[in-house]
Write a structure and sequence with these properties.
Family: Belongs to the PyrK family.
Structural class: alpha/beta
Distance between the termini: 27 Å
Mean pLDDT: 92
Largest sheet: 6 strands, mixed
Pfam family, one: DHODB_Fe-S_bind
Bound molecules: FE2/S2 (inorganic) cluster
Strand content: 35-45%
Shape: globular
Organism: Thermosipho affectus
Strand order of the largest sheet: 11-10-9-12-13-16
InterPro entries: Cyt_c3_hydrogenase_gsu (IPR012165), Dihydroorotate_DH_ele_sf (IPR037117), Dihydroorotate_DH_Fe-S-bd (IPR019480), FNR_nucleotide-bd (IPR039261), PyrK_electron_transfer (IPR050353)
Number of strands: 16
Protein name: Dihydroorotate dehydrogenase
């Protein structure tokens, strides 16, 4: 694991409150995440992905810490890569995500055969190369019309995840749980989840899990 300062490259506004932040080169595997330190505030986890051929995260501004990550001109102190590599099953996949996981979706499409549906609460202000829906009604319509895929990855709010899970049936559904982490390195135990296979830690056993394991 590296513990170093990252140079921000670009900041792209996606919608009202969510931004893609790209970095100079760092090494990581699909499904891994990064913990970013913010001034006087707790570390924050972000699933890693790519944008414009650069490592990237997407950040929803929810408070001072996330605002700092988006707006600072300084290098950002970060710990990475963390978590387990995600390897989807064979066949064609469907990645259903909120804008906060768009860089992950982008990376998956580069490595695996899959489609992407992005559900955004507010209109996108930036052209993305994926199918998207704005607002709950349009998103629900698009999810209900999805064809059958061999595997699914869902990453967004709990409400979004529950809605999608109520509409699809598959033995190969994966969810990303990165929002629940404290230290990111297996030390604080704050990310423990009870699974069918015993207690797991999101930061070391995840952040992407099979849904039927949870
Ligand atoms: S976040 Fe601390 S143990 Fe997982």
């Amino acid at each position: 694991m590296e513990n170093t300062y990252l140079t921000k490259k670009d900041v792209i506004k996606l919608n009202k409150d969510t931004y893609i932040v790209t970095f100079e080169n760092i090494k990581f595997e699909l499904g891994q995440f990064i913990m970013i330190e913010t001034k006087n505030l707790v570390r924050k986890p972000f699933i890693l992905g790519t944008w414009n051929n650069h490592p990237a995260i997407s950040v929803q501004i929810k408070g001072k810490g996330t605002e700092y990550i988006v707006k600072t001109q300084n290098n950002i102190k970060a710990h990475f890569p963390l978590g387990k590599k995600f390897i989807p099953p064979s066949g064609k996949g469907m990645v259903i995500i909120s804008p906060t996981c768009i860089t992950l979706a982008n990376l998956i499409t580069k490595e695996y055969n899959c489609d992407v549906l992005v559900g955004s609460k507010t209109p996108l202000e930036y052209k993305i190369p994926f199918e998207f829906a704005t607002g709950d009604v349009e998103f629900a319509n698009k999810v209900e019309k999805l064809k059958k895929y061999d595997w699914y990855l869902i990453s967004g709010s709990k409400a979004m995840e529950n809605f999608v899970l109520s509409k699809i049936e598959s033995n190969n559904i994966y969810v990303s749980l990165e929002e629940y982490m404290g230290c990111g390195i297996g030390a604080c135990k704050s990310c423990a989840v009870f699974t069918k296979n015993g207690v797991k830690h999101i930061c070391t056993d995840g952040p992407i899990f099979r849904r039927d394991e949870l």
